[in-house]
Specification:
Strand content of chain A: under 5%
CATH architecture of the domain at 1-78 in chain B: Up-down Bundle
Largest sheet of chain A: 2 strands, antiparallel
Number of helices of chain A: 11
Oligomer: heterodimer
Distance between the termini of chain B: 56 Å
CATH topology of the domain at 1-78 in chain B: Four Helix Bundle (Hemerythrin (Met), subunit A)
Number of strands of chain A: 4
Structural class of chain B: mainly alpha
Number of helices of chain B: 6
Shape of chain A: globular
Order of helices and strands of chain A: HHHEEHHHEEHHHHH
Chain lengths: 347, 176
């Protein structure tokens, strides 16, 4: 029974955490983009406009959700929920801090540690494409349908690259448990360089690029492309649209957190010993959040800097560049790790 | 107890999904029914502690195959309805006989397990399913596994070859 109570508390805390994070994230993105583009940005609601997201959320909540007459209404309603669920599910396996000990029991700062954690992430993120496909189809309108077809082709293509980019990580750490991958990165090379998986530089870069495409963020936001070719959620309004929006921002945070967890040592960082013990557990959480927000900033920075890619270039880049490079890199890594584990075959 | 409840829920979802595949008026609903059935099967695998198989089920079937199905259905056109009724009554009888035969076979094969609740295949060591599957694939069944890999690679290459070569007379749309 205690297991269930612990799980329920963790899920509740994780939910509140991710919602608050998204609230800040949307505001931060608007503020950062406005700074990068020499605009003022939101500054009316609360100090520095920090309540802007809350106001927008309330507005969306009270707005009328228009029901297109041609839509298949049941699926039209299910689609935004199907977008949000995978986004929330991925966050469950990300450890946000070192395990803490309270009264002799060790609690992990992670809702669940699956021994197939990495595959779970890939499985859940592969379900995200259904939301977009269903939304585009059930809207009963041409542009959303075209947008959905475009989106599903893009997401399937880059999912392959993302999965392949993760294979060297598994080879190097020889585990698929997310907590195990973080533990494997705790040591140091020599005496001070942290032994993070970022040494797999090609994997890191491919994962990051595929992450941008998977979250449908610029420069790969052809899925939405609000300024000209319009995307899958054209017919959505009110709260249903807000759910898509929410899912996208949760995915941005998830992707940043995953990058940090898989390649940058997760919550690893120097913990000063002079701190009182009750505050010690916060230090790893601080490192994790610092690194994750750095990547969130990268997402925003790229959005404010790069133009959108043309669709055929996007597909060519995914299939003819990223996937062959990741395949070659997997073979190289496998050979190198084989040498390290078993020695050279000719010796 | 919790396992029984989860089993009953997802067994029902799988059955409803299966029926939807057959009777849905629109192919998209059939695809969603198939998705529900596949997802429920993945939950069954989790209940049997076969986590790796469950995840592979979701990645491959729910994630890739079904997305492809939906994609094709939408690309071909959602407005076109399937006009093929059942034209051969003999097929209907044959299908019923085969289905009943399979059902009886399953009942006979599993009768002791369903009455006594014991596992027919013994209790495997379930600690770390990836390691177990890897041991089997790369230890006991290496040759079979590699043969399958070779077969799949040849099939993939054959698909590419068929798609790219041998239709020079087709119109230029085929090369796009």
């Amino acid at each position: 029974m205690t297991v269930f109570i612990e799980a329920a508390i963790k899920v509740a805390v994780a939910f509140v955490f991710i919602m608050l994070t998204t609230l800040v994230l949307v505001w931060a993105e608007r503020k950062w983009v406005s700074d990068l583009q020499n605009r003022i940005g939101p500054d009316r609601a609360g100090p520095f406009g920090i309540l802007q997201t809350l106001a927008d959320g309330l507005k969306a909540f009270f707005k009328e959700s228009i029901r297109p007459t041609q839509s298949i209404y049941l699926l039209y309603l299910v689609a935004p929920i199907a977008a949000l669920i995978p986004a929330l599910l991925i966050f469950l396996v990300i450890p946000i801090g070192a395990p803490i000990e309270i009264g002799g029991t060790t609690y992990t700062l992670q809702v669940m540690d699956l021994n197939i954690g990495l595959l779970y992430v890939l499985a859940v993120s592969s379900l995200a494409v259904y939301a977009i496909t269903l939304a585009g189809w059930s809207s009963g309108s041409k542009y959303p349908l075209l947008g959905a077809v475009r989106a599903s082709a893009q997401m399937i293509s880059y999912e392959a690259a993302m999965g392949l980019a993760l294979v060297p990580v598994v080879l190097l750490t020889s585990t698929t448990s997310i907590a195990g991958i973080v533990d494997a990165q705790q040591g140091t090379f020599g005496s001070f360089i942290p032994a993070w998986n970022i040494v797999l530089i090609p994997s890191f870069i491919i994962f990051l690029i595929a992450g941008f495409a998977e979250t449908n963020r610029p420069p790969f936001d052809l899925v939405e492309a609000e300024s000209e070719i319009v995307g899958y959620h054209t017919e959505y309004s009110g709260f249903a649209f807000a759910l898509f929006f929410l899912a996208e921002y949760i995915n941005v945070f998830n992707m940043s957190a995953l990058t940090v967890t898989l390649f940058l040592g997760g919550w690893a960082g120097p913990v000063p010993s002079f701190l009182p013990t009750w505050i010690q557990w916060l230090v790893p959480v601080f490192w994790f959040l610092l690194k994750t927000w750095a990547f969130v900033f990268l997402f925003v920075w790229v959005r404010a800097t790069l133009p959108r890619m043309r669709y055929d270039k996007l597909m060519t880049f995914g299939w003819k560049r990223l996937i062959p490079v990741s395949l070659a890199w997997i073979i190289l890594c496998a050979v190198a790790i084989g040498f390290r584990e078993f020695g050279a075959p000719w010796s | 107890m919790a396992e029984v409840i989860v089993f009953i829920i997802f067994a029902m979802v799988a059955l409803i999904g299966g029926i939807t595949i057959l009777v849905a008026p629109d192919p998209v609903y059939s695809a969603i029914g198939l998705l529900a059935a596949m997802f429920s099967l993945a939950v069954m695998y989790v209940l049997l502690d076969a986590h790796l198989v469950a995840v592979i089920q979701v990645i491959i079937y729910a994630g890739a195959v079904m997305t492809l199905f939906l994609f094709v259905i939408m690309l071909i056109g959602v407005d076109t309805t399937d006009k093929y009724g059942i034209v051969a009554p003999a097929q209907r009888i044959m299908t019923t006989v085969v289905a009943l035969g399979l059902f009886v076979a399953i009942l006979l094969a599993g009768r002791s397990a369903w009455i006594t609740g014991t596992n027919l295949f013994g209790t495997p060591d379930l600690n770390g399913t990836i390691e177990n599957v890897a041991d089997e694939l790369f230890g006991t069944w290496t040759i079979v596994f590699l043969s399958t890999v070779l077969l799949l690679t040849i099939a993939a290459l054959g698909t590419i070859a068929l798609a790219y070569f041998g239709n020079e007379v087709e119109d230029e749309e085929a090369t796009l």
